[in-house]
Amino acid sequence: MTFRWSRAVMLGAVVATICGAVAGPAEAQLIRRSRDGNTLLIDPIRCQTDYQVRQAIAAQGFTHIFLNAPIEDRIRARATRGKTVYQIDYNRCRGRFIDVQPLRPAD
Q1: What pLDDT score does 3 carry?
Q2: DSSP assignment string, the chain
Q3: pLDDT along the chain (107 residues), means of 10
Q4: CA 87, 89, 90 angle in degrees (round to 5)?
Q5: What pLDDT shows up at residue 16?
Q6: Is 91:46 a contact under the CB 8 Å cutoff?
Q7: What is the greatest pairwise CA distance in the chain?
Q8: Where are the domains positioned within the chain?
Q9: Phi (first) and psi of residue 55, to 5 degrees
Q10: Are 96 and 89 in contact (CB under 8 A)?
């Protein structure tokens, strides 16, 4: 009787360890640390992909779009419109432009 009980406990511990090892990395992808050290929960299903961000920026008349790595829910891009290169701050989870600043004349 004692042998069966300890075997069940060991099996339960192994299953719990495996489930924790599998779920940990998936949950870690949803958690981001903000610049001031707070923890944020980012929902990737609600945030736009790089392709969708490029399409939104292009829809505003920009070309030659280069994206930087996203920080939290924001992404910074460099793009050209007319004869000027702009720096664009874009909220990829809300789909909104935060700031657009001219950088330099286009070559």
Answers
A1: 53
A2: -HHHHHHHHHHHHHHHHHHHHHHHHHHHTTEEE-TTS-EEE--TTTSPPHHHHHHHHHHTT-EEEEEPPPBTTEEEEEEEETTEEEEEEEETTTTEEEEEEEEEE--
A3: 60 63 50 62 73 95 93 92 96 92 91
A4: 135
A5: 62
A6: no
A7: 82
A8: 2-41, 50-105
A9: -65, -40
A10: no
